[in-house]
What does this fold into?
Amino acid sequence: MTLELQCLAWLLVLAIVQIFAAARAKTHQYGVKWNMSARDGELPPLNPLAARLVRAQANLFETLPLFAAAILIVSIAGRTGTLTAVGAVLYLAARVVYVPLYAAGIPVVRTVVWLASVAGLVMVLLAALLPG
It folds into this structure.
């Protein structure tokens, strides 16, 4: 398996971790009974940590399909190389670092790390689009 596909697999592990982290934070606030219910009623706003974890998860899910598609395109087309490997590792590493930064409410560094993840995604996409 290529490094790029390994990064995609690890990104899916991160997505699962983020799903459970957000769910655990919401359950901690609202209770197990709420978690096991149909969740039909109105609830008070999430506390800051739970809300940040939910937003961090949503943020990952905005770019994850783009990253997955880009990785699959370069893999199927045989266009993997240094640019895609560095881009995939950069994207994955930035997404891993992003979660605790967002959870802690650290504003500026979080945005820089997010931009690094986008740069990694663009690197993979460039390899798919540039003549080669």
The radius of gyration is 17 Å. Residues 24 and 50 are 8 Å apart (CA to CA).
